[in-house]
Amino acid sequence: MSGFDEKILIANLQNKATRRSAFEKLVQEYSEKLYWQIRKIVMNHDDANDVLQNTFIKVWTNLENFRGESKLQTWFYKIAINEAISFLNKQRQHQNIPIDDDSFMQNKLESDVYFDGDEAQKKLQQAVLTLPEKQRIVFNMKYFDEMKYEEMSEILDTSVGALKASYHHAVKKIEDFLSTSN
Amino acid sequence: MSGLDEMNKKNPFNVPENYFEKFNAEIMSRLPDENNTEKRNVTPLWKKILPISAVAAAFVGVLVTVGFFNNKTIQKDKGFAESESSANETMMATTSSASEADDFYLFLQDEARNTSYYETFAE
Predict the structure, then answer these.
(1) pTM of whole model > 0.80?
(2) Domain that residue B25 falls in
């Protein structure tokens, strides 16, 4: 979305008369992108659907608080990622699962009916799931989405230097996992 | 990084058929009503300050009433020879201020009832 289009959309979102129609456009524009960010965190389609709904409802109820200091997409990603992480934390708490227990997420991958990758892709996903949560998010954003570090820095509120270090460590861990599992 | 570079980066996850089309329609129907949100959040300023001002006014009323009675007592203590007329004037002022105080308390009672703080006066 161009800067000009975004300014018009923001103005329409903050005007009560045009808010709903503008929000509908926003959903059409961003739902798929946000879904995949969320899905890679929560793994499961049904959970991703719940989190995506929560994300858009949160965006809707906080539209008047958006000050335009960052891009809309950055703001949405922040909300989506926070919602996804909160969702997982609640699930772990509900099932009394420690945060460092890998099997929780590995089981989600194993039981996901909407995974149709090959064996190598499954191995890669298993390797990614051994990473700590934030590092996993950094890896997915950089490796699969090819996002720029500057954009990741705004979304994750982390310096570019820290993100680069995190990504390189993630790559090393994953390559070690893949070589030992072969 | 050569190992990962050779990997297939294609998204291995998928979604149910027509998921995004259905989602877009469903989320619009789930959005909270804007009007309810507005009514819940907006409290008129006068409603916010009235309870505090009612309590403050009651306190001031007590001080004024006590002040009038004390004033009469201080004049006696100073030992001035009061003429009957000046004593009567003082009595009338005290009586008049007592009825004013009663009116004032009735006013506060009505206001407190309206703001659901009636219990303060019913004790």
Answers:
(1) no
(2) 2-38
